[in-house]
Amino acid sequence: MDEQLVYAERIGSVLERLADTLDAIPPGAADARVVAVGSTPAIIAAHTHGAVQASVLGVACGQSVPRDRAQEFATAGADLAPLAAALRELATRVRDGLAALAPGALDERTTPPQHLMGAAPTRELARREALASVLPHAGEHLGELQLIRDILVEQAAGN
Question: How many domains does the chain have?
């Protein structure tokens, strides 16, 4: 199995698990905060989608993709079903994008446009580095969302 396929499968799996977790959040809880300073399910989904799309498709695959990090964190009033669908669709785009890369492409260095880097300053990096950063970042948000889901499900059950 080649490296690009490994990344594609691992990142795709995290995106699908994020979508499954969104599906299990009680109706009407897209904007719920379980702690005052925490993010909502909608914000976590929008931010993770934006970050993965930017890092994988934008940086690693060199595609022209939009990103508005400030909007990701302003997401409110969203229905979770379209966010879950967008995460699943992104998993497919990640797999397709990485499968289309030429051998050795991950060794190439690039300087991404600032909008893809979010709050981090832009700098030259290997395409592989962009991929390697996605898994812990998306995984952290998956764990955060799973914890929020568990709390919201307990609250909805009256416990």
Answer: 1
